[in-house]
Amino acid sequence: MRGCETAVKNLHVVGYGNWTGEGSATLKGVGSFVKHFAQVVGGRVDEARQHFE
Question: Under a CB-based contact definition with an 8 Å cutoff, are residues 20 and 33 in contact?
Fold first, then answer.
């Protein structure tokens, strides 16, 4: 980890540490963070896919 970012490119950590949000380390609390990260990662995949078409 480098602060709030991973040292590995394209590795997304959800529910890790108190900087990800209140309750994010619990199964119930992580839901909204997972939804957000899924949208972010999905957008990056779509962006990369368009680049290679």
Answer: yes
Assess contact for 24 and 33: CB atoms under 8 A. yes
Segment 12-33 mean pLDDT: 71
What pTM value is reported for the model?
0.50
From the list 1, 23, 26, 22, the residue with the least C-alpha distance to 13 is 1
Measured CA distances, 40 to 1, 10, 49 (Å):
19, 11, 14
Q: What are phi and psi of 5, to 5 degrees?
A: -120, 150
In DSSP terms, which residues pair with 2 in a beta bridge? 5
| Contact criterion met (CB below 8 Å) for 23 and 29 | yes
